[in-house]
Amino acid sequence: MPKQDYSELNPLWGDRGPVIVGFLCNWCSYRAADLAGTSRFGYPATLRDIRIMCTGRFDPTFAIKALRDGADGILIMGCHPGQCHYQEGNYKAMRRVALLRRTLAQLGVHPDRIQLAWASAAEGTTFTQTVMRMTETIAKLGPLQWRDTVSDLAPRTPAPEAEEVSHG
Amino acid sequence: MTEEKVGVYICHCGNNIAGTIDVEAVSEWAATLPHVAVARDYRFMCSSLGQELVEQDIKELGLTRVVVAACSPHMHEPTFRKACERAGLNPYLMEMANIREHASWVHQHDKEAATEKAKALISGAVKRALELSPLEPSRVPIQEATLVVGGGIAGITTALEIADAGHPVYLVEREPSIGGHMAQLDKTFPTLDCSSCILTPKMFDTGNHPNITLLSYSEVEEVSGYVGNFTVRVRKKARKVNTDLCTGCGECWSRCPAKVVDTVYEAGLGYRTAIYRPFPQAVPKYPVIDVENCIYFQKGTCKACEKFCPTGAIDFEQEDEILELEVGNIVLATGYDLFDARRIPQYGYGRLANVFTSLEFERMVNAAGPTGGKVVLRDGVTEPQSVAIIHCVGSRDKNYNPYCSATCCMAALKFGHLVKEKTDAEVYSFYIDVRAAFKDYEEFYNRVLEEGVHFVRGRVAEVTDAARQPGEEGKLIVQVEDTLIGKQRRIPVDMVILMAAMEPRADAEEIAHLFGVGCSAAGFFTERHPKLDPIATMSDGIFIAGACQGPKDIPATVGQGAAAAARVLTLISQGEVEIEPVRAIIDEERCSGCRICNNLCPYGAIDYIEDPGVSRVNPALCKGCGTCVAACPSQVITGQHFTFESIMSQIEGLLYDVSNGHETYAEPAPLETA
Description:
The complex is a heterodimer. By secondary structure, chain A is α/β, with parallel strands linked by helices.
């Protein structure tokens, strides 16, 4: 995998690339990421991940905090629907993420910057592909620049419509 | 807050990490982080010298937090927690940064980016470590009884080992008898031992063991609890036979007028009655009534079995029984299903009469089987003059299963031998590779070669009855490219045996979900570690044995069954289990009693206490998923070890290089209460 020059996709990147904060559930997606490592599946170094026990623990405040602190995107990954280690935590994440995307869209944050996806512990490839796909999406959207997008009081372009939650 | 002192340890993991990440530079950088008292890099942190390094620093420098940047916490978190504990530091004050699986191994193409990412992960871990609190794991006594699911040779072995050690076992089997696939086999490779002769004594022991409660014709419906204390609900299906009265004399099935194709034990090759015992050596010996095919249940009259039963054991009114079992450990030994050969239409199974599956052939050569052990065509009388054995049917084929089913080569060799022994037929074995890897297997292959079985290397394209050349009329023609001579061949034969793949049980995924274990992409249960722990699963207290974990032969299955028993016995002899203190706690002083969390909890662990009007978590039921923590509108539920503060700080740390000196997170001040 050659080194990516993100400014080709969006000149605003300059010499840096996207920073994505990941919230991976302990049982499925964190292990999928481990498996990607063990299998030496390469993917761009854009994801900085946090292990939580379950996507049900994902508090939308975490995403807002990360975006405000400089992240360009948030990736929440859990077990496939119906396979949650805690029975239904991923369904709760689905609801919370849908609301979060809608709320952030109203603040001018493109909803694609928040993505929810699934990978079982055996799906190292699914994990890798999800990170690659998300990196490309964020790379095209460009840096978030929270301060300019959200924090200032200057009029801004209307936010795009929130799409359906990604089911990865 | 007293001054925290963090020790950061960066592992080279030989070259696994150091080959991609500039560990020295990361170590130097980490030493400059706030609160970091010492940062070191070392070749192998998990070695005893590496661990001693941590212990020494805790003692000499008075570290209050430890961050180990190495492999996945799923690999070595317990190792470093123990090291901290030995040095007197609470083990929950140790945090790992996964810079191997999540950085060096996946960013080998970009060393600079990998190093930067490692810094971010370490920065996050340090920030998070500063917010961790000391925790004490709770210890709970372990239930002595064990649940074994599946009564094939794996489950039988596990149950007997545990029961012989003096502990109670519940063995649940879906079919009316234990024995599994092994009971269907005729001979076992490579020694040609009679399969049932070596199995039935074990079945008998299992059925009569004072420590084993055999629940045949039963299925697990619900599982709750955790290691040491599982509650399992089992449905004992109605046999319609009172087992207290039945003697297993056989009068009922000899009088039953309903004839049913036996698709389970006889693999569709033979018949049974509607009230039946799968095979003479069945354990338990009691028959069951197959309600779907019983004339009385379908048409309302018959009751022949009831009339002739000498002990009055037939009970048409019998209902399913629900049992609640309390067990400490669970072993899954649910076995495999045979690949449905109809899925490869060009091989003609189900369409061409004389194409058989391997399991059908097992029943055919079995002296107790439908043909009395005679190798004959589907007409039941004609002995074949030539037999084709096709390997890898549904295995090693990207259209069906990419994996090798491991046992079929040896079974095919055994079939070649048996056909030669019982008939004068020519035998052709069509293989891709002959895999005869274990003890005495290669020798058996040589023996079968010497017996004159013809081996043709190539994947069979088609089995057809369309004759094209003289000599092909009335035959099955096997079309194959013989890759050793580089030519297409058409070989006319009388009988074809398809060595069908071993597949996960059709409902393996449901079973996995029921017990909270994982399934691989192929559908076999996932082991905790593919090399070092093929017996445990990711769920503590749940073990796997036999072909439900992956295709394997009898010795490997027995080995894994016994290993699972050993693992269970280890836990039982410890007497109690440690429960991770990752639980939710509600600050009742600040709880508004809104009850949003009550219904969110998947385990019903949160009760509303009427009097002070607050919610309270039952720590015995809470599993620490944290969904209530995320939902609490007043933020008064603490998810231990994954607190709001610790995750917020970790985010801050992770983004240390891009946050542009933003205002950092500060806990909202509590309301002033006058």
